Amino acid sequence: MYNLLKGKKGIIFGALNEQSIAWKVAERAHEEGAEFVLTNAPIALRMGQLNALAEKTGSQVIAADATSLEDITALVEQSMEILGGKIDFVLHSIGMSVNVRKKIHYTDSNYDFTAKGWDISALSFHKVMNVLYNKKAMSEWGSIVALTYMAAQRVFPDYNDMADNKAYLESIARSFGYFFGRDHKVRVNTISQSPTPTTAGSGVKGFDGFIEYAEKMSPLGNASALECADYTISMFSDLTKKVTMQNLFHDGGFSNMGVSDPVMEKFE
Ligand code: NAI
Known about the structure:
Elements: E1 9-13, H1 21-31, E2 35-40, H2 42-47, H3 50-57, E3 60-63, H4 69-83, E4 87-92, H5 98-101, H6 111-134, E5 138-148, H7 162-184, E6 187-193, H8 199-202, H9 207-217, H10 225-236, E7 247-250, H11 261-265
Parallel strand pairs: 1-2, 1-4, 2-3, 4-5, 5-6, 6-7
Helix pairs in contact: 1-10, 4-6, 6-7
The protein binds 1,4-dihydronicotinamide adenine dinucleotide (NAI).
1,4-dihydronicotinamide adenine dinucleotide (NAI) is lined by residues 13-14, 16, 20-22, 40-41, 44, 65-67, 93-96, 120, 147-149, 193, 195-196, 198-201.
């Protein structure tokens, strides 16, 4: 370990179970010397195993529905009290589509479900940054990261309305990143991760074929949740101070591929 986050304070959204990308980020942040608050939706806290992670990393858990400005405000205020000052890093690792859950086809969207999924998966990122910005809760040279997927740029038919949510999420990172950079010297980025076997990931129809295809297409193979955590830690560290408003692909090279030899072999 490199003490990359020694003395840094953070808030980590979205650790549900050991598979969660946010779970791995919390473990790695702890190893790198950070202190942080863990948060998730109240229902996830009832279902999940977050207390075990809190114990392991010496963290407190605060329930917050990321679509509620009231909850986020209380979360940020309490986090600053617990951690004793401003926040250096924030991970937004939240995604959910009701249309996907209910197996409703993209061409037949239920728009109440679309709106709910958009609020949770995309607009919540704006709400979190709104509170952090207006409360001046972030330290100078702080870093905010949200997780995204390449369906924001290219079509993956079964990714459904999450593709649109991710496009919106990535746009918020750019738009808010301008104001956060200009006014508070805080950077805002999205990390576009390979398909990863988690609760959210496995909910996508045909996930097994999908992850296998990405593995065969990527010269370095798919990036794991732990590798995603490592990259996220580097984005929270002082080694990446001038990286902002970017969508950063962390996918073993997948996003620049046309076709690979192992995939071609299947057609020859
Ligand atoms: P996960 O299922 O472990 O995490 C999703 C989290 O969102 C859960 O902890 C859940 O409780 C939380 N959440 C849902 N509604 C919420 C609400 N209203 N308020 C607060 N939190 C809420 O799955 P995973 O894969 O770790 O997902 C984390 C992020 O990574 C998501 O943004 C996902 O889209 C993204 N991602 C995942 C990939 C994958 O293949 N698993 C690939 C690329 C990006």
